[in-house]
Amino acid sequence: VLTQECYVQNTAREYAKRYAAEAKSLEGFGEVPEIIPIFLVHRPANNIPYATVEEELIGEFVKYSVRDGKEVTLLRRDSEAGQKCCTFQHWVYEKTNGNLLVTDLQGVGMKLTDVGIATLAKGYKGFKGNCSISFIEQFRALHQCNKYCEMLGLKSLRTTHQKQRKTTSMKSKNQPNSSTVKKTVPKKARESRDFISSEH
């Protein structure tokens, strides 16, 4: 469990570094959220031989994205850190073609810890997430773009989602023969996606 915790947070940290590099090159973007590193330590003389160590965050601890996927806390919506965390989620989602989402963004100011990861399919790029696929579905439905999403040129998820639904309904009306074939594809896709239980 501790190894997985380190792997999740440090993987998310690598995405955050890439996000920061891209965002910092934009004029007026300002400070970028950082996911602090977490380390696994071995203590052979201790009754509990393994532990995790990370920087202590001092100040008001805020959850910018909650586990149940429901929006929106005032600090998430109105604060600079909250908006930039939402944009970070959108950026990762777009960069991975909707296959991966960093969840549970929480911490003090721009320093984040104890994050999670949800993957669309088990084993995406050999990575095992620790959150359910439903987090991705909820994010796609609930995310509202802000000025930082616009600065990074991210595509609106709401528009894309609505277009996909309209295209599907139009195709099923106009092409009844092909709709039965197309309906089986999402079903198979759903069956192949394993829900990844939380280890928190």
Beta-strand residue percentage: 5-15%
H/E series, N to C? HEEEEHHEEEEHHHH
- What oligomeric state best describes the polypeptide chains here? single chain
Which strand order does the major sheet show? 1-7-6-4
| Mean pLDDT across residues | 79
Q: What name does CATH use for the topology?
A: Protein kinase-like fold
Shape: globular
Alpha carbon gyration radius: 19 Å
* Corresponding CATH superfamily: MHCK/EF2 kinase
Task: Give the count of helical stretches.
Answer: 7
Named at the architecture level, the CATH assignment is Alpha-Beta Barrel
Alpha-carbon distance between the two ends: 9 Å
**Strand elements, count:** 8
Spans with pLDDT under 50 lasting ≥5 residues? 171-200
Percent of residues in helices: 40-55%
Number of spatially distinct domains: 1
**CATH structural class:** Alpha Beta
Largest sheet: 4 strands, mixed
Care to give the gist of this entry?
The protein has 200 residues and is an alpha+beta fold.
Give descriptors for this structure.
200 residues; alpha+beta; Protein kinase-like fold; four-stranded mixed sheet; two-stranded antiparallel sheet; 7 helices; globular; disordered C terminus; ATP binding; Alpha-protein kinase 2; kinase
